[in-house]
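Would you mind writing out the residues of a protein together with its fold in token form for me to study?
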Amino acid sequence: MARLADYFVVVGYDLDKRVEGEGEGQGRILQRFPEKDWEDSPFPQGVELFCQPSGWQLVPERQPASFFVAVLTDINSERHYCACFTFWECQENPQLQKARAGEVDEVDEEPTIIRPAQVFAPKSLVLVSRLDYTDVFRNCLALVYTVHVDGLTVPLETVIGNLLTCVIPIAGGSQPGQEERGDSWRTITLGAGDRQVIQTPINDSLPVSGSSVAQLFRQLGIVNVLYLFCAALTEHKILFLSSSYQRLTDACRGLLAIMFPLKYSFTYVPILPGKLLEVLSTPTPFIIGVNSFFRSETQELLDVIIADLDGGTVTIPECVHISLLPEPLLQQTQTALSMVLDPELEIADHAFPPQSSQPSAPKIQDKEIRGIFLWLFAQLFQGYRWCLHIIRIHPEPVIRFHKAAFLGQRALTEDDFLMKVLDGMAFAGFVSERGPPYRATDLFDNLVANEVERIRQEEFSPHKVMSHIKELAEQLFKNENPYPAVSMHKVQRPLENGQKATQTQTPFPGLDEVTVQLFIDHATAKLKTAPPVVKAEVKSRVPSGPPLGDMVDRNSNVMANSARRLEVVRNCITYIFENKMLEAKKLMPAVLRALKGRAARVCLTQELNQHVLQNRAVLDDQQFDYVVRMMNCTLQDCSHIDEHGIAAALLPLVTAFCRKLGAGITQFAYSCVQEHTVWTNMQFWEAMFYSDVQNHIRALYLETEDGEHHEHTEQHDAGHQIGALELASEQSRLWPTFGKDVQTERVQKEESTVFSQAIHYANRMSYLLLPLDTSKNRLLRSSGLGDVESVSNSYVTNSIAGSMAESYDTESGFEDAESSDVANSVVRFINRFVDKVCNESGVTNEHLKALHTMIPDIVQMHIETLDAVHRESKRLPPIQKPKLLRPTLLAGEELVMDGMRVYLVPDGREEATGTMGGQPLLPAEGAIFLTTYRLIFKGTPTDPLVGEQVVTRSFPIASLTKEKRISVSLPMEQFVQDGLQLRSCTFQLMKIVFDEEVAADLAEVFRKHMHKLRYPQHVQGTFAFTVGQSGKLIVEHKAKDKNQSLKTLSKNLVKTAKRTINRQYVTKKKYSPPTWENRSSFQSELDEDEISVSEEVDQSSLTLSSTIRSSDRQTMSNVVERACCRDYQRMGLGTLSNSLTRSKNEPFRISTVNRMYTVCRSYPGLLIVPQSIPDSTIQRICRCYRQNRFPVVCWRNSRTKAVLLRSAGLHAKGVVGFFKSPNAPTSVPSQADSTSLEQEKYLQAIISSMPSYNESSGRNTLSGFTSTHMSASDSSDKLRQPKIGALMKQVMGAKEDVPGTFNRGGKWGSIRGSGRLSAYNPDVGTRLAGKESPQPNGGPSEALFLRQHRAYLYIIGDKAQLKGGKQDSFQQWEVVPIEVCDVRQVKNSFKKLMKACVPSSTVSDSSNFLRYLEESEWMALLHRVLQVSVLVVELLDTGSSVMVSLEDGWDVTTQVVSLVQLLSDPYYRTFDGFRLLVEKEWLSFGHRFSHRGAQTLSSQSSGFTPVFLQFLDCVHQIHLQFPMEFEFSQYYLKFLAYHYVSHRFRTFLLDSDYERIELGVLYEEKGERRSTQVCKSVWDYIDRLNKKTPVFFNYMFAPEDDEVLRPYTFISNLKVWDYYTEETLSEGPSYDWELRGRPERAASDEATDKPDSSAPKSRRRSVWPCYDSLSKTVPDAITKLLQDMQALEGELGQASEKWKDTWDKIKANQRNETKLESKSSFSSSLLMSSNLSHQRRSQGVYLQESSVGSSINLALDCEASATSTPVAGRPSTSTLYSQFQSTESENRSFEGILFKKGALLKPWKPRWFVLDKTKHQLRYYESRQDKECKGVIELADVESVLLGTPAMGAPKNIEEKAFFDLKTTKRVYNFCAQDSLNAQLWMDSVQSCLSDA
């Protein structure tokens, strides 16, 4: 029984403490009954604050009475419900009284304020109770108020006395039997003619919620409440806001109700007074309600979830992450909730909805919602009782929950929500409350134990779920309202007129304490005499429900559990213990793979268990090694919480398996498996300890029971867990019946069991925590490297150190200085463990002290044992590791660091791992070598089946772009932790992991060296410079150089340039240039300071030859020899002859204005400028351009004489000046104007140099080139001609145009789009697009084409820069604005491209490559560059000149200009031409190779930007589309792509010619200094190589004269360059030619030495695309023929001819043959094979000169020759002949098996012989299927066929007549047929062949 109310309190407004001027007052307790505290529940503090949560205030008008319930929690965390009933009483206004008492003038001062005579003060009646009966409290307080207001005759004291003495039962009986009826509901009356029925719930443990849950869902909605629910369970802070206090209380109550069976154990304040708002900033979780009045003060709370009940919103701050329920539970819960709250939703779409589908009444709905949450918890906690460990039964059961096992069995280890809930306080309370096996049970216990199967079946049928929930709801409702029929109340309300009369109402009177106290005393006395009411609590054994078993199987994948894998594991273990080590070794990789699955790991522990006898299993070294490896592999995939209990099962095994090391010294397995986090996890040890204690306690009680019980328990299939809880339950039931002595005996027995286990575990923990070599760990850690590479658990020591005081260490006798810190940290860890488990399991203090004393001794003893083991284990022979293979080095390449043993682990490329079929080449074990040039890995695969292969991966150290540390755990070996991931821009990635033998500091040294080599201080530190010198990096040349004069000269040159570039003043001195280079004597009379720019000299005569003194002319020839000049002369762009002989009318001249690099540092020394422009103008013009890179001519079209110019973009201020109309009114011509005029003059000079301009009568006729261009005969050309307007549109970014279609009416690109129509010549678009009369094929009509006006000069400029300019309508040039790709864009795109082509980790999806490729936008960038280039080609071809003026003129400009020349001029598609193109446009014109390639330390920050690679990729795309136009092969492009970043050659170092001269690099390649050993120039190297081998040559090279190429540029036409994706693991990159194939040859020699006689060997071999070099193993036909010819020449001893000569001869022969044979037919040998589908020439394309008969198939990409067909016309003999070659099957005249005697001392062998009459030969093969002929006997050489005699070693049992001999001019062949008949047949056939011939 319990009191209905503990205290009754009257609280009023405290006038005395009122602060003047402020609205806020205070409340005080006027009276309270009883005045003395009850013993069982003290009076709660702070009631007066909670009566008026918003503060005590006086108000001018009376408010209606209010009621709410606040909840206060006392110090014992008991909740007190304070029901507050507040009404308002009239008061005299205290301010008026004061004013009357004071002087009158004060009142006069403030006449404006009118104060009411009366104010109203609040007064509260409060009931304090430990029960929560809101309605009853409301009725009782209302009654008290009514009695007072209506002045009823009943004295108030009586009512309050009755109220305080009312006693009600706590929980009702379950059966409503008549006699118990008084218990379950109680009628109370307070003596004022009232009557109320109080119904108490049947089961006290279920919360009572009324309709608060339903109301909460109505206010906030399903998702919001679920968020709050999860937040409360995962311990977040929750704040409710509402303007109604009662709603706040209800919402909090509702939230707590749905959390059942978990109980909320943090701060819970449904109504928080305003004065206490600072509570909200508490760090602990809470559920608090606050009036919305204080909303603004809750705004700055950062980590609080705010639920606004009135607005229906839940606000979750950014920093708060709420873990939601695991799927599919979340989805099911939401569905169920919406079916309860909104049943109409389901049938909303039905055509015939049922008549009524209203939601249930709120009270019922409330229970349905709670039913859903009960059902949810039953699913969440299903099977929880199987994870309880009972560690003590007497005197009180102590129970612990094994979280890891629970999560593991539910397969929810990854689930954030469940993890947090199980770690939370609420769940800890749940375990302690519901853990005991013998107690009263409730609805939840029943649900979670007995309904599991039902819940599982319902899972996918919502309607079954609903019916289950309705049943639950019914039970919950019945619990709250056992007798719904009797709920009747009779309580008077205050009368209406009484309320009106309250104006004159008297204040609430003071009550008589004595009277009330008398009532209370009377009642307590009566209670004492009454017999005690005993509520019989029904205790029973709590059901456990079905075991969790394999609920996991649904989620885990099927593969892991396949029986085959388990079989492999079992077999391997059997082999190990039977000592069949070879078998075990073969199975090992498969076992280690299988151990990834849980089932296999469990199987391993079970199998190993069977080999343990009496807790011990002694193994030999190899067995021990294998067992340890398997254990490590098993543990490695266990998480640190060990959810599957694998580590727990292995724990007894690691102390059982051991090996003998020496006399009396045994090494146990635990010393080799310490490197796993699970051993350092305290929770793991606790769970292990508790489960062991449980087993022992169970055993303890099983012994005391009789034998039958024992057997009965054993038979139980679920094993010990049922036994333990069952036993505990039984023991708890019997406990009260035992005598005192039996009880104490049992308690002692249990306690000592726990104690002995604690000692056992202290030992076990020291085994697994103390490293084998304790000293090493200490030393390593003191040197600061402990955490990088420690053999032991240095992380244990770090995590524990200092976290706990050393409790009893000081008593320990041992204090060994040597190992103290390892020992101490382990001792501290074990002490913490022991303290925790012993306190929880009630070990006595004496025992605990004894343990603390023991632990240091245990640890110390163990350390001593380990020292001996460590000493002995060192003497063991080390595990045989593969020998380190040495890499082959280039001449001059030296090792910087010798090989360090590493593993090369697989990255995202799956070809090498064997997952896509093929051999698992990776992971491989070997060594990493760092040389001055490369980083090389060389090793062998760890998989023993592929062990013979050699794996090589390498890249130039200069190409390293990113290095990051990784840690990888290898499946194969012991733990190898630290590694590096190295990425190279040659599309290579190395993931290496250091072997444990590599010291950490060594790995660090390796990284430092690598960085030093990657980013040298100066370019001279790169390999190209240091090659051949000693391995030290040389920064400055100190030695005396041969070319000293040149050095000094360059230095002086540079000084001068630096000076002059700053002050370009004009002097009147004559100009005398300094010498360039004079090898005989150095001219000291260099008058540096005299260099100046002179305007006086006649510009026209200032050519090179005229201005240079005779003594220096020969030195100047170096400049002339430079690529540019050779090229200029080839195009006739300006000669270097004497100015007298040169005709003045040549439009261009070679200017030497930049010969000192003073005008533009990054341009070459000689430049082509218009003839009419003097050098002084140039010096002025150049300032308008960025980096002073003014426009210069770099190519001229030989046909139309249009020129191509390049320059940088204009400076921002220059742009506007450039486009300003020249006749703008300016009073004084400013500096800017004059330059802009000169610029115009410059452009005009270029335009006037064009013949078309001079010929034309006026500006508007373009007859000069249209006629040549549009010759009517070239009809095919016309169809194919891309429309320039369309091209322009695409280039300028009109995105909506589909390729091929092209809307004429559209605006012109981006210019028009910008809305600045007037800014540009509005004609441009229409002219280019050709608007009128479009033709059906989209091309402008021909007549129109002739009429169109084209500008003479187009300037391709950057869109971003050309804003705001105005095009003058009279100028002859036009600007084409385009969007340029930024250098940053290229850099980022390249990074993404590398990640796509060489991913660092495997991706699940194969389409990912394409997705990443698209995201990288690399193809889009290529498309953009190619598109602009094609446009420029078109413009030049139609006779307009083009000036490319983009960015700084050295990135995109260079790409576009080079591509344009490559497309327009066939010369650049030859070896010489391409070299010249690169030297001219890229090297001389100053592309910043050093800067863009981040070649030195200074440019490291700018990162790697592959502008040149992009250009090469564009060339590759063009090459693919026009394979017959290029002399060089694709390999040539790859070679350049590789070596431009490799730094092996000096060609691509430095940023400009100026820098190269400064370093003395530019001219040193010429002349006598070339060393034979090292090539400094990549071009020389290519030349040499090209002489030796045709690898760079393109056999399909058959150029058409002056063909201009126009490639397709759409992304769909571009292919990914295989350079990015291919890899050759057998030999590394093939671009260092000297290294190719050396080891291979040795291997093949060995193979031939020892022939394998066991089986006939096939000549076929597998070719792995990622391992073998395809071009070598499967060469194309022509290369193969050339190789064969060389080999034959070698065999015949002839001097071998150069391949090029052979090739040229063959081509010449072919040509002559063609001419002789088929003058009529258009082509000779064969139709172009369809592989060349991209080839774009007229339809009947024939492959003319490039083949040797049709027997050589010119297959592109090694495709087959099926498509080639001989052509009509008289074929050549070779063609005839080859027809037979392809179809051997048809001309086999006779075939069969013959035995043939081998050469001297060789055995007889059966062979398949074929007699071929057509070719007149006898061929033989190894077998019938074999395609490759083993040998040929030419019948022409045969002299006779005779019967033979059996020779030695001939086949047995064959008759003598079966032998016959074949005599040729060279030797005699002995044959043997199957029988004599067969032999006769063969002889006749051969004979007939001979006679036919």
Observations:
- The chain is about 40% helix and 15% strand.
- The chain has a mean pLDDT of 74.
